[in-house]
Amino acid sequence: MAAFLELKEISKNYTIGSEQIWALRDLSFEVASGELICIIGKSGCGKTTLLRIIAGLEKQTSGEIILNGQALKDTGRERGMVFQEPRLFPWLTLEENIAFGIKGRMSRELNYKTVADLMEMVGLTGFARAWPSQLSGGMAQRAAIARALAVDPAILLLDEPFSALDALTRSKLLTDFLHLWQRTHKTCIHVTHDVNEALTLGQKIIILPSNPGRIGDVISLPFPYPRSLENPELRAIKERVLSQFFADFTD
Amino acid sequence: MTNVLKKTMMALLLPFVLVLVWQLFSQMGWLNNYLLPPPSGIIDQLFALAHHGTLLKHLSASLYRVGCGFGLAFFLALPLGFLLGLVPRAQDYLSPFLNFLQQIPAIAWIPMFILWLGIDETSKISIITYSGFFPIFLNTMHGISNTDSKLKEVASTFGLSPWQIIVRVYLPSAAPSVFVGMRLGLSFCWRSLVAAELLGASKGIGYLIQEGRELAQPDLMLAGVLMIGLTGLFLDFLFLRLEKTLLPWRDTQERREVPKWQPF
């Protein structure tokens, strides 16, 4: 299968004083259409930077990103982004927030239908007129996912979207997100520091090492959903991922 | 609704007790009625003024000046505040100068304004414009430049043009701050009005106080002072209602109280 999204030797460095700090170094990987990929790494390994580069919010120092045969630059509607925080617009109601990206781009009826469908899909029906300040963290993050999906992006980028939530809400949202993905089969890149989250969701896991000079592991997870983390194969993989993490510590 | 009633009662309690004590002390003869006329005397004076139509004449003259002055201040300060909020580089050039101007109270300009613009309405309205300008300008500028960059990022991931980002992110984000500036600005305008009217006016609330001084009528002076306070309170209330109507989402958030202080 031809690659849908292709990252070619992406590097990013910062100059701090006279020193050059590499956040990412010659990172390459491919994502197939409809694939759900998890990028996992410890904090500070550059995983958020990588996602922001794909989104166009930051510029890579070198390298190229190709989506559907076209080199990417700047931000674009074909890449939806869900941030760690919901980042809803406080002056818009829930439905207006979800409709933010499609406002004025389609008929009123279609707009209304799109928003209503999305609210149903993320389980927010009945909250159309609520203000963001009235929502719980989990609801706000659901709304943020719906807002990103409203423009029907070719690829959805998720930057630790569940990490700021409490454990119970997180596992509920994780399950719901999986259902959502199974329904839409949207190409997703999901960044996380949580190994269990990556094993629950990912068809493929990319391990981003703390030392940007090293090439990270890519692990395929050809297991059906919903998965049990008690599955011996998954447990073995978890061991492998964790040992890589700890190997980093002893470097 | 009962909540509104309760709040109104709570707000009226202190003034009511004060007036009651004041009236009682006056009637007991513990207060010098010339230096501090009783509340009933002031109210009588107000009724007399209202009855003759003089109160309305003075009040409308003052409101007209404040209306013009505030309107002018608003239309000058708002675009300038937007511009400087959007272009931080311009702030480096303009901020020190504007900060210098801001230090000068409106009252200090009165003689010069009269010299330049004559003793008529123009100089009075200019004084009022001057005092209302800075709070509106500064709050608008800060509102725009404090726009959450995280929300700007969200807007740019949806491929919005810079102009769309201004209209759909900067403006609504700055709106509460603009309102704070407008409320402060109106209050500043209203205060400087009296200063402008103390010199060379033939009508207006400030003139009324001046007349009370010349006629040695403390009840007239206090009636004027009372009118200033009440009208200012009423205008502020109107703006607060306007803000609630235009920015309904603010009601669900914590409100910042508008600081009211100006070195005069």
UniProtKB/TrEMBL annotation, chain A:
<keyword id="KW-0067">ATP-binding</keyword>
<dbReference type="InterPro" id="IPR027417">
    <property type="entry name" value="P-loop_NTPase"/>
</dbReference>
<keyword id="KW-0547">Nucleotide-binding</keyword>
<keyword id="KW-0813">Transport</keyword>
<protein>
    <submittedName>
        <fullName>Aliphatic sulfonates import ATP-binding protein SsuB</fullName>
        <ecNumber>3.6.3.-</ecNumber>
    </submittedName>
</protein>
<dbReference type="InterPro" id="IPR050166">
    <property type="entry name" value="ABC_transporter_ATP-bind"/>
</dbReference>
<keyword id="KW-0378">Hydrolase</keyword>
<dbReference type="GO" id="GO:0016887">
    <property type="term" value="F:ATP hydrolysis activity"/>
</dbReference>
<dbReference type="Pfam" id="PF00005">
    <property type="entry name" value="ABC_tran"/>
</dbReference>
<dbReference type="InterPro" id="IPR003593">
    <property type="entry name" value="AAA+_ATPase"/>
</dbReference>
<dbReference type="InterPro" id="IPR003439">
    <property type="entry name" value="ABC_transporter-like_ATP-bd"/>
</dbReference>
<dbReference type="InterPro" id="IPR017871">
    <property type="entry name" value="ABC_transporter-like_CS"/>
</dbReference>
<dbReference type="GO" id="GO:0005524">
    <property type="term" value="F:ATP binding"/>
</dbReference>
<feature type="domain" description="ABC transporter">
    <location>
        <begin position="5"/>
        <end position="235"/>
    </location>
</feature>
Automatic annotation (TrEMBL), chain B:
<keyword id="KW-1003">Cell membrane</keyword>
<dbReference type="Pfam" id="PF00528">
    <property type="entry name" value="BPD_transp_1"/>
</dbReference>
<dbReference type="GO" id="GO:0010438">
    <property type="term" value="P:cellular response to sulfur starvation"/>
</dbReference>
<dbReference type="InterPro" id="IPR000515">
    <property type="entry name" value="MetI-like"/>
</dbReference>
<keyword id="KW-0472">Membrane</keyword>
<feature type="transmembrane region" description="Helical">
    <location>
        <begin position="220"/>
        <end position="240"/>
    </location>
</feature>
<comment type="similarity">
    <text>Belongs to the binding-protein-dependent transport system permease family.</text>
</comment>
<feature type="transmembrane region" description="Helical">
    <location>
        <begin position="63"/>
        <end position="85"/>
    </location>
</feature>
<keyword id="KW-0813">Transport</keyword>
<feature type="transmembrane region" description="Helical">
    <location>
        <begin position="97"/>
        <end position="119"/>
    </location>
</feature>
<dbReference type="InterPro" id="IPR035906">
    <property type="entry name" value="MetI-like_sf"/>
</dbReference>
<protein>
    <submittedName>
        <fullName>Putative aliphatic sulfonates transport permease protein SsuC</fullName>
    </submittedName>
</protein>
<dbReference type="GO" id="GO:0042918">
    <property type="term" value="P:alkanesulfonate transmembrane transport"/>
</dbReference>
<keyword id="KW-0812">Transmembrane</keyword>
<dbReference type="GO" id="GO:0005886">
    <property type="term" value="C:plasma membrane"/>
</dbReference>
<keyword id="KW-1133">Transmembrane helix</keyword>
<feature type="domain" description="ABC transmembrane type-1">
    <location>
        <begin position="59"/>
        <end position="239"/>
    </location>
</feature>
